[in-house]
Specification:
single chain, 182 residues, alpha+beta, eight-stranded mixed β-sheet, 8 strands, 34% strand, binds coenzyme A
Length: 182
């Protein structure tokens, strides 16, 4: 797969580049992001390595975007479709936003845009979303991006605090009603 750019109102989803290293490194200092996304980027080299992986879609198993303000180009967050499985027509979605961009619906709009693209362009039928039970803000993203709650996965994932947390599983199917604002 080759990277593609997506437009979502005031948001632009573009591919990552090495030029994003300083912004990503700054974002990674946020304790919430370190806990719930567990991206091991503590040095600039870590950030560059992260960006290199995210910018390379050639394996076909992920599609990853920087979410930026369409007007200013400033970095607002990240959204990634991963575990893409063409045979099963499935994928999963992950995301974060920089602290200054939170509370404005950036993550739900970015997740919605990525789901629509996956349904349309990859013939994906089911996108899964998981978050730690304690991460209520992420559950709100799921709800606002049109996902339906499916259940609780017990001690299913080790997060950045080193602890295996129960997770809540949500999914959006290609024929589920899209979110109202989408
Ligand atoms: C979870 C996260 C992605 C939400 O992104 P967002 O762009 O702020 O999404 P929204 O604006 O829709 O806000 C979602 C919820 O975050 C909470 N929230 C609102 N303002 C906030 C702020 N300034 N700071 C933190 N959380 C806030 C609210 O509970 C909100 O729900 P509401 O709409 O019912 O009020 C973001 O808080 C984040 O990056 N957190 C740390 C990393 C993380 O949890 N990643 C997801 C792993 S599964």
């Amino acid at each position: 797969m080759e990277p593609v750019e997506l437009a979502a109102g005031a948001l632009r989803l573009r591919s990552w580049s090495a030029d994003d290293a300083d912004d990503v490194l700054a974002a990674m200092q946020d304790p919430l992001l370190r806990r719930w996304n567990a991206i091991p980027a503590t040095t600039r080299e870590d950030a560059v390595a992260f960006l290199r992986r995210r910018a390379d879609w050639s394996a076909g198993d992920h599609a990853s975007w920087a979410v930026v303000d369409a007007g200013t180009g400033g970095l607002l967050g990240s959204v990634s479709l991963h575990s893409i499985d063409r045979a099963q027509a499935g994928a999963a979605v992950g995301y974060w936003t920089v602290p200054a961009a939170r509370g404005r619906g950036v993550a739900p709009r970015a997740v919605d845009a990525v789901c629509r693209w996956a349904f349309r362009e990859l013939a994906v039928d089911r996108v899964e979303l998981c978050h730690a039970v304690e991460n209520a803000a992420s559950g709100r993203v799921a709800e606002k991006a049109g996902f339906l709650f499916e259940g609780r996965l017990r001690r299913s994932y080790r997060y950045g605090d080193g602890v295996k947390h129960d997770e809540l599983l949500w999914a959006r199917l290609s024929d589920d009603p899209p979110p109202a604002a989408g």
